[in-house]
From TrEMBL, chain A:
Coiled coil: none annotated. The keyword Signal does not apply. This is ABC transporter permease. GO terms for biological process: transmembrane transport. Belongs to the binding-protein-dependent transport system permease family. CysTW subfamily.
Amino acid sequence: MRSDRGQSAPLSLKIAAACGLLFLHLPILLIFVYAFTTEEKSFVWPPPGLTTQWFAVTWNRPDVWEALSLSVRVAAISTAIALVLGTLCAAAVSRTKFFGRETISLLVILPIALPGIITGIALRSAFSLADIPFSFWTIVLGHATFCVVVVYNNAVARFRRTSGSMIEASMDLGADGFQTFRHVVLPNIATALLAGGMLAFALSFDEVIVTTFTAGQQQTVPIWMLEELIRPRQRPVTNVVAMVVVLVTLLPILFAYYLTRDGDQIAGSGK
Amino acid sequence: MPRATAPAILPGSGGMRGALSDLFWRRPQLLLLIMLLPPVLWLGIVYIGSLFALLAQSFFSIDEFSGLINRQFTLKTYGDLLQAANLDIILRTVTMAALVTLASAIVAFPIAYYAARYARGRWKALFYLGVMLPLWSSYLVKIYAWKLILAKEGILTWLLAKLHLLWLLDAWLSLPVVGGNSLSVSFTGTFIVFVYVWLPFMILPVQAALERVPGNLVEASSDLGASPGQTLRNVLFPLALPGIVAGSIFTFSLTLGDYIIPQIIGTSRLFIGQAVYSQQGTAGNIPLAATFTVVPIVIMGFYLWGAKRMGAFDAL
């Protein structure tokens, strides 16, 4: 291979990369086809016929609506808590150097770096030791804990790009700390917070492992789906819910990408 | 009287708010403390506290006759962990995690390399989204999609029938450990789904590592007469290694702890996560469940320590 051949990739690399991306995307697209299949009992491919009747059936299922409502409420409150805690932590870590800074960044990342089952069972054993009964709030407690990292990652990236001299200028011009925060800092970090919030919402909306350990009888959408996967009642309804879940989580992520596309990294550190 | 020019030093802005603001400006340490207190308290109490509760439980034991938990310090439950059946679970999970990590690295490399070196402008954004969307789309939906693909009457069987390759599938399924009734109840199926679900976690750090490799390094290597294979082995691979190790932290750790994938797509032989789940749930043996979770924590502790020595954290 000579170097003056320009910037075109070798064919084998192109094919390998394309196959990899197809591998990542085809299974998700498949869900959309299955939501319209007329087959009720099994996973027959290709679908014997297409229909939209399952959307109506799903619409009339109260258990789906209950799960959806619980998921949205849990995700909204966890996101709100994560926004406050994550922003505070990011502001502190990005502005100053202090003793224990590394420890604090590790503390924020740990709930997501360790497998979900550890977070889940740790919370569960703490609840049982402290005699806390399972409720809406025990789910929120778990979700908010691992959502902090997403907000934190986005906010830290933005704080690092925001110049500190703007804050000094604002103070020199006579604004007090609160005015500076409201009129200078907040507009600068707003889109990063919005993006972090959306990702936190998507993360909470999708979380299943921690939820199984921190929920009592309540069913969030992922718990409902897990139940249907293990003991199926009406397969087509599961197909429709799966498709809706894909759309509900993908739209915020696309929007978050749009908000942070120049410069910041979307928190890719995972779940 | 004409108004004097503004004084060089403004008076305090007055009021509670002003006083607070001035205080924070003079004593940044105080502001720092107030900012750090809520997140550190939350994570410290809720998360670290829970981890300690878990650790404490692992030193309790269960009374085999009454089924009650005996809250006395003992190492007995750790002894139970060494029973052949439990060691078998640990060994199976660690082997699977290692294989999944290896396969993810192999599949991720071309995607990451193309994205880092050849994709520009709009293509670059497309590649990024192409990795981010599967990473963030619902975990259960992804597993469900694979259930549809791997099931006996599913899309893969159909495809192989069209290609007249069903004999190959049958031959594979009749193999002792990796085979089974259908792909959706075999270790092969579990393996494929693990690789699929964790793959984006490997692509992103490898891409980040490869992006730091200057293009003329590759050109220099080929100008000096290296074949593409030699360049890959001797130049690209060593430079991408920290990225691969960084990605492997995720693929390895997530496989160690997962219990949903082997439960939905897999055989009846347990993984660590499933053992934890059934011990704390149906069996009611929380101490043994806690002891089981200590295994991935310890493994990941050593893993992270080794990864740090290899410089993997700089690639994150």
